[in-house]
Prior knowledge:
Alpha-Beta Plaits; 2 helices
Amino acid sequence: MPQDLPAGPKSTTAKYWRKPLDADTVKVPHGEIHIVVNRCKGCLFCVEYCPREVLEISEDFNVKGYHFPEVSKDDACVNCGLCEMLCPEFAIFCVLDEEEGGGEG
Length: 105
């Protein structure tokens, strides 16, 4: 495989054909995931469709008797919001983590 091809979707490093012009100034957002465990009905849409594979199935049960999702890779979340859009029970939501931006003073 040639060295200058882009990395696959499961790769942790990416090689580009050319460097984006704003690569030094773009900051990747970071999200904090909150799960309302007792509202979850165990459909696991959030686990299956997470593009960064941040969530996994818990071995524990909630009060309804379902396995609920739990965060496995918290630092990989980019606050895309796909998990909260797909959840039919509104049991999961993301909050943009402002701490990574640093303070003004």
